[in-house]
């Protein structure tokens, strides 16, 4: 008899209402695959883009979700023991094959990162993709060093909040932005040294804080604010284009000499599971358990509330990571 599970299925692009909870067969793993009993998963902006049918993201029908945490149900290749705690992320999850919005997910072994933790599953569900993007943006993208001044453009997003936490752990001074003055104290509470209210043009304000410009900047808003972020950055400083919260994907009629100031370095970051070393994930979770690091969770939902969760993500009214638990 075929086992079934509850999963969120999207048959075609549209609003949050296209996310439909159904009973579907539990996938059967083969060599090089891991079947995971999903306990929780975080929501990501790219899943909103996929649901809308914009960008270059996969095919329908599909179970969305680029990340999940849970326990190993089966790994025919013997890579993981049943019951082992794991995170799964990227590698085509929720785009070219079914993802984490389900009670079980089947992923390639290359998409799995192991960990051990007694933290609540909702907390664990918030971490993998958020940490991978923040860690990679600061290390691979910006090459942050102790003593640097780093601008986090889009500080109240889940990745922005994680960037603040990680940058402070590295020993950097952090300038974070928000469009909402009411969120400034929250940013300071999580570790930001300075908060700038984002009007769209903030380079002058940033240079009042750091007159020569920032050493590094993580751009999470999009291409519409990127030129201004570049102007806030010092000669030989680095800007990592790591997010598109404003859904601004391209720069029309891009002329590099008009956009990139002399000597400022522009790069980008988008990672995979292999860009989140198990050591980095484990150390971060251990720090959270010890109270020396924070996971910025905005709200936790049940699987039945996935439509409302996507409405909340689309509205952008909540600061931090939105997480769904499966039971």
From TrEMBL:
The keyword Transcription does not apply. CDD domains: quinone_oxidoreductase_like_1 (cd08243). It comes from the Bacteria. Keywords: NADP, Oxidoreductase. GO terms for molecular function: NADPH binding; oxidoreductase activity, acting on NAD(P)H. The keyword Lipoprotein does not apply. Pfam families: ADH_N, ADH_zinc_N. Residues 14-324 form the Enoyl reductase (ER) domain. SMART domains: PKS_ER (SM00829). This is Zn-dependent oxidoreductase, NADPH:quinone reductase.
